[in-house]
Amino acid sequence: MLIEEIKSLPAAPGVYQYFDAAGKLLYVGKAKILKNRVKSYFSFTPALAPSPRLSARIAKMISEAAHLEYIVTPSESDALILENSFIKQLKPKYNILLRDDKTYPYIYVNLDDDFPRFEITRKIIKGRNIRYFGPYFHGAKEILQTLYMQFPLVQKKNCVKGKKACLFHQIGRCAAPCEDKISKQDYARIVQSALAALKNPQKMVPQLQDRMARLAQSENFEEAAQIRDTIEILKQMNVKVEVDLAKLDDFEVFAIAARDGLVCAVHFSIREGKISASSSHIINCKAPSADDIANAYKQMILSAFPAAAPVACA
Question: What pLDDT sits at residue 103?
């Protein structure tokens, strides 16, 4: 059974889950190419066995594995987020990383503040008008630093009206609302420009390239190299994550699709904006009709919410 499941894996990004013979989740992993990653765990001759290249812990996990499930994702970034969510919620036996409360960082801004500033967070901040960007697997700090370098935003947490302007204003990197040097309306326009830059970080690259060239011309090669590395990070920020909501919402997701004589049904449970559990079923069904699809969808929902047991009356 397991070897057939391995052979059926697609060449696509996603998350894979190993289960033991009793159906207990052993391990969750992510892959850029599911087929290649899962096969790397095994030696196939003369019989299916753990690969000799595995660590002792993972080799033991593979020796207990009897069943494999996988979820295809739009990108490797989505696979990372989904893996992170599953490990935290389900706590598989053999996953030792990502089991704490830490998660990938976001950049956020509270637009209800008089003079909003951008910050990094690893949790959902409560508020009616908070915007999130990310999650970022690397480079969140560099992106935030670039944002503050290119836009005269409030950078210090303790910026208080009536207080003397700080060093950031003196070097042209803060508009100094603390000294009433900018109105709320003008500052709001700066924030909107910064939001547009976060939506497409590559827009910040040309200005960084100019700065890098000036630094190199003045033989400040160390700082120029740091700017070069930041440019490379920004250029990689072109993948949209689709499985992390950055909202504290609880709901269920059901989807069903038919193709090539197969019907696939998928169910996700969302808890506090994260995918906490999933299930999927694939059945053979030649030329399914619209009624067949509707009935399968109905059955999937009924299975997820079984009727409560009747209460006996005295």
Answer: 65
179 in helix, strand or coil?
helix
What's the pTM? 0.56
Token pair listed for 234: 């920004």
Look at the domain 2-90 and name its fold. GIY-YIG endonuclease (3.40.1440)
Q: Cα separation of 266 and 256, whole Å?
A: 6
Per-domain residue ranges for the chain? 2-90, 106-199, 251-304
C-alpha distances in Å from residue 144, one per residue of 223, 237, 241: 17, 13, 19
Cis-peptide, bond into residue 135, ω within 30° of zero: yes
Residue identified by tokens 């209800």 is 112
> What is the C-alpha to C-alpha distance for residues 190 and 187, in angstroms, rounded to an integer?
5
* Pick from 157-166, 201-210, 269-278: least confident: 269-278
* Per-residue pLDDT reduced to its tens digit, 244-266: 555 556 788 888 888 777 788 88
